[in-house]
Amino acid sequence: MAEDFIPFEGTKTEQYEYVLAQIEALCMAESNAIANMANICAVLREQFPWFWIGFYLVDTAANNLVLGPFQGPLACTRIPFGKGVCGTAWKRNETVVVPDVTQFEGHIACSSLSQSEIVVPLRRNGAVWAILDIDSEHLNTFDETDTQYLGRIADMII
Ligand code: SME
């Protein structure tokens, strides 16, 4: 039986350390990636004031990303390879931080409320098989701390 989650007050690093312990425990207890993605969205949603948190899964046959588990408002279901911030992170096989979405050419606006964004790849044998996408209603929300911790979280999903 899962324990209730109580949000932690502190610096961004302290908040990440707190959720990391929870997420580590979740991922060790369950091997199903989709189940873990769903709970990771929930844990992040409880702790951080972000607008949208979710995963997209690589659909190799269609050469696009298809919407996976998420928390937040309705979102685009498919994103082509190389398109938008998500498709770009997939193509580059690296984390993409966008401080202001209006300055990112090709940004796909699932909601006009989103102002900044981070997209982190999930890899299997070095190849991207999914991405974690987080949107904020504020500018400049994500930095190197988010890149490091969300990268660690992404690596826990295998
Ligand atoms: N903004 C993303 C699309 C996904 S939504 O933000 C949920 C992009 O440009 O790829």
CATH topology: Beta-Lactamase
CATH architectural category: 2-Layer Sandwich
How many strands?
Answer: 6
The CATH homology group name: GAF domain
Secondary structure tally, helices:
4
Distance separating the two termini: 23 Å
CATH class: Alpha Beta
> What small molecules does this complex bind?
methionine sulfoxide
Question: Rg, please?
Answer: 15 Å
Give the structural class: alpha+beta
What is the string of SSEs from the N terminus onward? HHEEEHEEEH
Strand order of the largest sheet: 3-2-1-6-5-4
Describe the structure.
There is one protein chain. Helix content is 35%, strand content 26%. Helix 1 runs antiparallel to helix 2 and helix 1 packs parallel to helix 4. The protein is globular, with a radius of gyration of 15 Å. Strand 1 and strand 2 form a beta hairpin. The protein has one domain: Beta-Lactamase, CATH 3.30.450.40. The protein contains four helices and six strands. With 158 residues, it is an alpha+beta fold. The site of methionine sulfoxide (SME) has 14 residues, from helix 3 and strand 6.
